[in-house]
Design a protein that fits this description.
Elements: E1 2-6, H1 16-30, E2 34-40, E3 51-56, E4 58-59, H2 61-66, E5 72-73, H3 75-87, E6 90-94, H4 99-110, E7 115-119, H5 129-149, E8 152-155, H6 158-163, E9 174-175, H7 190-199, E10 207-212, H8 221-230, E11 234-239, E12 254-258, H9 262-271, E13 274-277, H10 286-293, E14 298-301, H11 302-305, E15 315-318, H12 325-338, H13 345-354, H14 357-371
Parallel strand pairs: 1-2, 1-6, 2-3, 6-7, 7-8, 8-9, 10-11, 10-13, 11-12, 13-14, 14-15
Antiparallel strand pairs: 4-5
Length: 372
């Protein structure tokens, strides 16, 4: 089967949605499918075994202006995407809100191609009133209609599935968790952990806390800034990139690493004392699952902690309010003081048993076969 994956960006953009899209496209290729992936050309197309990539000519003025990634594809790119959909046997679209997703869905309907929508995120409670209203309008007039039109809907988070439970659909929505490269993301031995911490030059700091993700408002960067001021004895390591520049905070206990390879991220998970994810409007960020597989304690928002009901007992949940970063930082400070900072072997075993790209791809394959 020729399967076309469509996402807003390629994985080089640094967001979780596109990283998931790439991993799932590769897992489908490993199951013997002719796997293709189309996304905006704003980042280099990755080289993945068995996956043919199609960069779509795009520009992204909205992200430059307000930090909200929203690629706009050119008419020529729209026509190319339509040709890719016409050549495919089935289409997998990641998240409803983006222009490439909307274009791919329209083409799939026009060419009568089976397609499914993987919905990753819900409404984002931005601190700005204007952005909150814009997000509410986009959710009501773009996301929800797209969810209703999808022949098959897949959620990667039970919390997001509940958020959209009122959306009528012909087929029952499915919950399919992201996978994890379990051979790469694993707990470290004591001597390995000590060596990795030494590589971070963390001398003088009693703890190392890790953040992995885009440097944008909804990820809670203002909360991390307030928390770093609150805990000068702790080192905060931030891996990622985006319009917010943590280097400008002028805090000696904040270290920005930029975008990291998967191998480097695995080392950071093994070196840190906890993963901090003060984000809002999330589904089930892949970094949580990777941290769990690495045995790293996770402190995150309540929605993310409820994404997998069976994993919730392994996660520490915090009420997040992006309009009050100092208050939210105080909540994270209290949670840190209560969490057991030690490798969680039970969480690692759970992740290894339940988060697997081959299993996720197999379930997507089955759904596409039913739609064909």
């Amino acid at each position: 089967m020729r399967i076309l994956t469509v996402s807003a960006f390629f994985a080089g953009h640094g967001g979780g949605i596109e990283i998931v899209a790439g991993n799932l496209a590769q897992a489908l290729a490993q199951r013997g499918h002719d796997s293709h992936w189309a996304a905006a050309d704003l980042d280099p197309a990755p080289s993945l075994d068995g996956v043919t990539t199609t960069p779509l000519r795009s520009f992204d003025p909205i992200e430059r202006l307000i930090g909200l990634p929203m690629p706009l594809i050119t008419p020529a790119a729209w026509r190319e995407l339509d040709r890719q959909v016409a050549a495919a046997d089935a289409v997998v679209i990641h998240d409803a809100l983006y222009m490439p997703s909307l274009a791919a869905a329209a083409s799939a309907r026009r060419h009568a191609k089976p397609w499914l929508l993987v919905q990753h995120i819900g409404a984002i409670p931005y601190s700005s009133t204007a952005l909150r209203l814009a997000m509410k309008g986009a959710t009501n007039f773009v996301t929800r209609p797209m969810l209703r039109r999808a022949p098959q809907l897949v959620f990667i988070s039970d919390a997001i599935r509940r958020e959209f439970a009122d959306v009528e659909r012909a087929r029952p929505a499915q919950l399919i968790f992201n996978g994890v490269e379990n051979g790469l993301f694993r707990p470290g031995l004591a001597d390995e952990r000590a060596a990795l911490r030494g590589d971070l030059n963390a001398g003088g700091f009693s703890e190392i806390f890790l953040f992995v993700g885009r440097f944008v408002e909804r990820k809670g960067l203002a909360v991390l800034q307030a928390l770093a001021r609150r805990r000068p004895q702790s080192l905060f390591v931030l891996a990622g990139g985006g319009p917010i520049a943590p280097d400008r905070w002028a805090l000696d206990n904040v270290r920005t690493l930029g975008k990291c390879s998967q191998r480097r991220l695995a080392e950071l998970y093994r070196a840190a004392d906890a993963l901090l994810l003060p984000s809002a409007g999330e589904g089930y960020p892949l970094v949580i699952q990777e941290a769990m597989a690495s045995g790293l304690p996770v402190i995150c928002g309540k929605d993310s902690a409820a994404a997998d009901p069976y994993a919730a007992r392994h996660l520490v949940s915090v009420e997040i309010d992006l309009t009050q970063p100092a208050l939210t930082a105080d909540r994270f400070h209290a949670a840190i003081n209560e969490v057991r900072v030690a490798p969680d072997q039970e969480a690692a075993s759970y992740a290894a048993a339940n988060y697997n790209w081959a299993v996720s791809a197999g379930r997507v394959e089955a759904l596409l076969t039913e739609l064909s």
